[in-house]
Amino acid sequence: MDTKNLQNYMYQDRAAHLASGQLSVVVALAGKNNIISFYHRTSTSVMSGCILRAAGLGAFSLATILSIRPIRNLAYEFFLICHIVLIA
Predict the structure, then answer these.
(1) How far apart are CA 68 and CA 79, in angstroms?
(2) How far apart are CA 87 and CA 56, in angstroms?
(3) Of 41, 63, 40, 59, the residue nearest 51 (C-alpha)
(4) CB under 8 Å to 62, separation ≥6 — which residues?
(5) pLDDT value at position 40?
(6) 82 vs 47, residue with greater confidence
(7) Which of 82, 61, 85 has its CA nearest to residue 72?
(8) Do residues 86 and 63 make contact, with C-beta atoms less than 8 angstroms apart?
(9) What is the phi/psi pair of residue 38, to 5°?
């Protein structure tokens, strides 16, 4: 397909298709209780049952303490980096 002389309406049409394709994702992730947060809570429950080593338990406990809402709201970027590093 020759894409050198495309008209503006072709770009607008493609953008509309891409935006409407993302609508289901936006609806699924809207609000506090979405599929991602459900998966996150479920995987946390499973992980907490599987942690047997002292280092893993310490990292998981520290990540849990840092997840307390006042601490998380005070320094969100710090929480996010620590959360990823400690869980990894």
Answers:
(1) 10
(2) 8
(3) 59
(4) 82, 86
(5) 74
(6) 82
(7) 82
(8) yes
(9) -65, -45
